[in-house]
Amino acid sequence: MTVAIVGAAESDLGVTNKSILTLQTQGVTRALADAGLTLADVDGLATSGVSRFSTPQLAEYLGIEPAWSDSTFAGGSAFEMYLARAAQAIEAGQCSTVVISYGSNQRSARSRSLGGVQESHLPQAQFEDPYGPLFPLSYYAMAAQRYLHTYKGGREWLGEVAVAAREWALRNPKAFRYEAGPLTLEEVLGAKPVSSPLTVADCCLVTDGGGAVVLTSLERARDLPQPPVVVLGYGESTTNAGMIAADDLLRPGSFASGHAAFAMAGLEPSDVDVLQLYDSFTITVLLTLEGLGFCKPGEAGALVASGATRPGGALPTNTSGGGLSYNHPGMFGLLLLVEAVRQLRGECGDRQVPGAEIALAHGTGGIFSTHATVLLGADR
Fold first, then answer.
1. Where do the Thiolase C-terminal domain residues begin and end (predicted)?
2. Which residue of the set 102, 139, 140, 326 is catalytic?
3. pTM as predicted
4. Residue 121 lies in a domain
5. Is 234 in the active site?
6. Which residue of 155, 237, 345, 347 is 20 to 30 Å from 197, comparing CA positions?
């Protein structure tokens, strides 16, 4: 059985002054309406970020009793992982209609809490905390410093990622930075340092937001209002919790997750028309491009600097504006899927990638800890 995404929607974004459950409900009901379905059709639910008891709490709030659920906490990659598990559950007959959702009010609440998780309680913290790292900033900065040192690059390699993201955001009225105007490389490099070599412009936004996607069988999907977006392949990798356990900062789990996803789909990177890559920090995008095989190790900086990832480029990436300029509500992986679906449906207006048939969404969680890749295709 083939599985497809039949609904996708965002909750309110930016500064909402709404509760997490309100944002979750917005995303779920809007995605179901987009799919031409109702809560009565839902028998599968996956979510994270409400609390340590996320799925039961949301199910109760929505008034549903799902036959299948998942609330694995894996950071930003969780939602791509949920999609794989949901597809497997539908194929196995455990459920027929799955909603994957997320919501966070971290900006309104002035909080970086992701459901009460306390990273400092991890055992490896005793070896890392004495050095005073900013979580997760300093850890990504370590990878960025290593990257620039190994490949003899300058900070402009990182800065170009932020510049490209802003160009896409200027085409997306829902983007947090939609009215901010273009971002120049000089502004990125001259921004306030946070953790060397990263400046504030290298770091993702802190916003409220969320959304949901709805999955069912492709056979059923073809009878619903929206063009189905077919799940072609997926893969995941979990590599480390603390940075001291990472064997090579320049070889994250995207190498493994991407290989698995492409193998399942029977595709190559050259087949992909549009990319949605987790961009918690600018270095995340460079390492993910290399891990997924869109260029060789050490070549991503020059690739982005060539304009390939910008509007009109050969490798359109983070077409919503990404976590750097569109929205980043604590965990961004769900919104990567929403944008991928909209691109394959041709719904993106000024930022639409012409003729997009294959989309890739890749989530990264923790400190390059978890990785999940999904390949989606238009049902032509």
1. 235-377
2. 326
3. 0.95
4. no
5. no
6. 237
